[in-house]
Amino acid sequence: MMRGSSFGYLIKEGAKNIYANRLMSFASIGTLVACMLLIGSALLFSINVNSFVGYIEEQNEVVALISDDATEQEVEDISNQLTLIDNILDFTYVSKEQAIEEQMALYGESAFLLEDFEGENNPENPLPNSFRLRIKDLSILSSTIMKLEAVEGIESVKAPTEVAEILSSIKRAVYSGGMFIVLILMAVSLVIIANTIKITVFNRRKEINIMKYVGATDGFIRLPFIVEGFLLGIISAVLAFGVLWVGYNYVLQVLAENPSAWINQIYQNTIPFQKVALQMAAWFGGGGIGIGVFGSMFFVNKYLKV
C-alpha cells in the first residue's frame, strides 16, 4: 500500500517534470487544449445539428387520407391503430370542413374564392378527411408508411420522403465526420504526449539509473511520468472546458442579436451550454486524463529502459 509520503513524492515529481520541461509541457498543454476545443466544438456542432434536424423533422407532417364516408366509429378505430405505431410522435384528425377553413385562412383577402366549399357535409368540398402525423425518426419513414398503408380505412399516405432522405444523410454525415475528427485529434494528442515523455526520460536518464541501482522498482520509476501525463491532461481539460464555455456563449449571443428570421430560428433550437455542461466536463476530464495517462503508460514503457 502506498504511503502518503510516497504519493506526495510522485505528485511532486510529476509537477517538477512539467516545470523542468516547461516549454515542451506548454506546447503539450497548448496542443491538447486546441485538440479538445476542436473535439468539443465538433461535439457541440453535432448535438446542435441533430437538434435542428429534429426540429425540421417535427415540422414535416405525414398525411394519411381517409374516405369521405368514414363513420365516427371508423375514424376512432383508425385513431386507436395509429397509437400502436411506435414511430408516430403525435397525430391530429382534420375533417374536410376544418381543412377548407384552414385553406381560407391562408388565402387571406382572397378567401372568398373558397366560400362555395364551406359548410358541413358540403359535397363540393374537394378536400379529404385526414390524419396529420408527426414522425419521431425520418430515417425509418419508409417502414412507417408501410404500416400506415396497412391500417384499415386509410386510403393513401402522403409523406416527405425526399426530405427524410436528405435529413437522414445530414445526420449520418455529421456523425461520421465528427467521429473522424475526434479520432484524428486523439492520435495527434497521443503523439504530443509521447514526445513530452520521451524528452523527460532522456533528460532524467542519469537520475533514473541511480534510482535503479539503489533498488527502486520499475513501477516506482514509471509512476512520476504517469502523474505528469495525468497533470498535463487535467490542466488541458480545465482550460479547454473554460474556453469552450465562454466561446460557445459568445456565439449564441451573436446569433441572438442577428435580425435574420432564419438565424433566429437556428438560435431558438440551439442547446444551451448549461444543459450539456456536466456531460462535456465528464468528456473533457475523462478524455484529457485518459490521453495523458495512456500516453505516459504506453510511451514510458517504450522509451524507459530500466
TrEMBL record:
Gene3D superfamilies referenced in this protein's UniProt entry, alphabetically: 3.30.70.3040
Record keywords, A-Z: Cell cycle, Cell division, Cell membrane, Membrane, Transmembrane, Transmembrane helix
Domain (FtsX extracellular): residue spans on this chain: 61-157
Places the protein is found: Cell membrane
The organism's place on the tree of life at top rank: Bacteria
GO biological process assignments: cell division
A matching Pfam family: FtsX
Keyword Transmembrane helix listed: yes
Annotated InterPro entries: ABC3_permease_C, FtsX, FtsX_ECD, FtsX_firmicutes-type
Domain ABC3 transporter permease C-terminal intervals: 179-305
Membrane topology recorded in Swiss-Prot or TrEMBL: Multi-pass membrane protein
Primary site of residence: membrane
Gene Ontology CC, one term: plasma membrane
Transmembrane segments: 21-45, 179-202, 223-248, 280-300
UniProt similarity note: Belongs to the ABC-4 integral membrane protein family. FtsX subfamily.
NCBIfam families: FtsX_Gpos
Function: Part of the ABC transporter FtsEX involved in asymmetric cellular division facilitating the initiation of sporulation.
Protein name: Cell division protein FtsX
The species this protein was found in: Youxingia wuxianensis
Native organism taxonomy: Bacteria, Bacillati, Bacillota, Clostridia, Eubacteriales
